[in-house]
From TrEMBL:
This is Periplasmic binding protein domain-containing protein. Residues 28-46 have a biased composition (Low complexity). Pfam families: Peripla_BP_4. It comes from Streptosporangium carneum. It comes from the Bacteria. Transmembrane segments: none annotated.
Length: 393
């Protein structure tokens, strides 16, 4: 189903549901302090409860969010932008690509989307080369890792075509990082998360913190670990960091790879049978939830006691939460904001400036908080209005 190049760039799997630095220890460490500065404790009484309450409050409020840039250089007129979508058949990829197109057209540029088709047949590289051949001024790639398009990026540079990536990994980050940067620029998600790798680690940590807070510091967890991938490694490392401070938590890691992606339901069902004490399930990507993890939970004889937290908060996943169909929570991420940030980054590159942080963050979404009545996760601020103001539009 997937091309060989997906072995290093499965980022489009973030979207493919409509879209590691080793396994988590089954043991745990003593309590400590989270990156947000909240003291973590698994003590389910007194001060421990207060700490957990504060932690869940921060996750719900989206304390990680900043604000978009308040000013930008003058927008150069008449530019042509080529957008490489990770796959228009996938709702997450489509959302990001359409957001870039919307933002580019907002500033008066011509924008076209090339369907990367989840990299089938090397479509990522083909799209980049098509953009160069079409004499575009710039190419923006979405959830496409540098490792899959090294040579096309060099060809773009030689042709004088600027390249900007968002939601992906340049060649100096991720699994097997070579130390070289081949994109002209990458979106900086936030001050605290200068790369997509750091942003994804923070999201993995938030997933662990949600479990710790909702379980009151007492949890036996099945963690699905997406092995051998940039995104999977970052999310797993973040989860391990987040759960390390929970002395009352134990983690049962279950590996999944690109070759076993279609076996997710069986993997989760088997893990639940092997660990009858486990009542919490951590799934790194919404696409893996849709690939079978939700079915495993919904079909379990223990389904009433199981709680599953997934990934990005895509529309079909939020429908599962609304309907009580095997998913209970997600870590909502503003994919459309990421797309607008890519255009802001490009405006600055055209002006010879460095990109500045986009203010991206995340929030946990469950039946108690941040679950919209319909549709996808929505960021807690009008980032479009903020960017229009900064761009003078």
């Amino acid at each position: 189903m997937f091309s060989k190049t997906w072995r290093r760039n499965p980022l489009a799997l973030l979207c493919a549901g409509m879209l590691a630095l080793g396994a988590c220890s089954s043991g745990t460490t003593s309590s400590g302090v989270t990156s947000s500065g909240v003291a973590s404790s698994t003590d389910a009484t007194g001060e421990g409860n207060k700490d957990l309450d504060k932690l869940i409050d921060e996750l719900i409020k989206g304390s990680s969010y900043g604000v978009p840039p308040t000013a930008a250089p003058s927008v150069p007129p008449g530019k042509k932008v080529w957008i490489v979508s990770c796959g228009q058949s996938a709702i997450g990829c489509q959302t990001g690509a359409e957001a870039v197109k919307e933002a580019a057209e907002t500033v008066g540029w011509e924008a076209q989307i090339c369907d990367g088709r989840l990299n089938a047949g090397g479509a990522f590289a083909q799209c980049v080369r098509q953009g160069v051949a079409a004499r575009q001024d710039a190419i923006i790639t979405e959830a496409v890792d540098c490792s899959d398009i090294r040579q096309p990026l060099r060809e773009a540079k030689a042709a004088g075509v600027l390249t900007v990536d968002f939601w992906g990994f340049d060649c100096d980050t991720g699994v097997g990082a070579s130390g070289e940067r081949l994109f002209t620029a990458s979106v900086i998600p936030a001050d605290e998360y200068p790369t997509n790798e750091e942003y994804q680690k923070a999201i993995g940590q938030a997933r662990a913190q949600w479990i710790m807070a909702r379980s009151r510091g007492r949890a036996s967890i099945i963690e699905l670990v997406f092995k051998g991938t940039n995104i999977g490694s970052a999310l797993h490392e973040g989860f391990a960091t987040g759960i390390a401070s929970c002395s009352g938590c134990k983690v049962h890691p279950v590996d999944v790879t690109l070759s076993t992606f279609g076996d997710v339901r069986q993997l989760v069902e088997s893990a639940l049978l092997r660990h009858p004490d486990a009542t919490w399930v951590s799934i790194p990507l919404d696409s893996l939830v849709l690939a079978g993890a939700a079915q495993a939970v919904a079909g379990s004889p223990r389904r009433a006691e199981l709680q599953l937290i997934g990934g990005e908060g895509l529309p079909p996943n939020l429908n599962l939460i609304r309907g009580g169909q095997g998913q209970n929570a997600a870590v909502g991420q503003p994919i459309d904001w990421y797309g607008w940030a890519a255009v802001d980054t490009l405006i600055r590159v055209f002006a010879g400036q460095n990109p500045i942080p986009a203010g991206l963050g995340f929030q946990t979404v469950d039946s108690r908080a941040n679950l919209p009545r319909s549709g996808p996760y929505v960021a807690p601020m009008d980032f479009r209005a903020a960017y229009r103001k900064a761009w003078g539009r």
